[in-house]
Design goal:
With 166 residues, the chain is an all-alpha fold. Helix content is 51%, strand content 0%.
Length: 166
C-alpha cells in the first residue's frame, strides 16, 4: 500500500480510499500502519477544492476531480467514525494532530465533526481515555487548539483559508 498511497492519480486515490474503508470495516486499521491509512484519508479531505470549477472540454465520465475525492473521503471519515466500533481507538486522540497544521486546514470541518462525535461518546461513557495527556502523544497544546478554532471560526465560510497558525 505504501507505493499506492503515493500515487497522484485521483482514480487511484479513489480506489485506495475505498480499500482503506473496507480495511477499516474488517478491523485492519487498528494494526500497525493503520494511522498511515487514516492520514491518507485526511490528506484527501484537505484537498483544495473550488466548487463550480469548469469541466474540461473533453469530459471523461470516469474522471475523479479533487472535489469528488474530497467529498468521498469526508464521507469515509464520517462512516469510520460513526459505524466502525474499533476505529474509536485509532481515531481518538489521533485526529487532534490534524487540527493545527496549516496543510490540513481544508480538512478541519470533517476532522472536528469526527472529534466531536468521538469526544461526546467517550464523555457519555465516562471513559478514562476522554481526558487527554498532551505530553504522552504529539498532540497540539490546548492553547494552540483553542487559538486555531477561534481563528477559523472568524471565517466560517472559508474566506480565511489563507490564515495559517504556525
Amino acid at each position: 500500500m505504501k507505493l499506492t498511497i503515493q500515487d497522484n492519480n485521483n482514480k487511484v486515490k479513489r480506489m485506495v480510499a475505498q480499500v482503506i474503508s473496507a480495511m477499516a470495516h474488517h478491523d485492519y486499521l487498528e494494526l500497525e500502519g493503520g494511522e498511515v491509512m487514516v492520514d491518507f484519508i485526511i490528506q484527501q479531505c484537505a484537498l483544495p477544492c473550488e466548487p463550480g470549477t469548469p469541466k474540461p472540454r473533453s469530459y471523461d465520465p470516469d474522471e475523479v476531480t479533487d472535489e469528488n475525492l474530497r467529498s468521498m473521503c469526508d464521507n469515509i471519515l464520517n462512516l469510520l467514525t460513526t459505524t466502525v466500533k474499533k476505529m474509536e481507538d485509532v481515531l481518538w486522540p489521533f485526529l487532534l494532530e490534524f487540527t493545527t497544521p496549516p496543510q490540513y486546514l481544508n480538512a478541519l470541518a470533517p476532522v472536528c465533526r469526527s472529534l466531536a462525535y468521538l469526544g461526546s461518546k467517550k464523555q457519555q461513557a465516562n471513559s478514562r481515555g476522554f481526558v487527554l495527556n498532551y505530553e504522552e502523544r504529539d498532540l497540539p497544546k490546548p492553547q494552540a487548539l483553542l487559538t486555531r478554532l477561534v481563528v477559523v471560526s472568524s471565517f466560517p465560510y472559508g474566506a480565511g483559508a489563507e490564515v495559517s497558525l504556525r
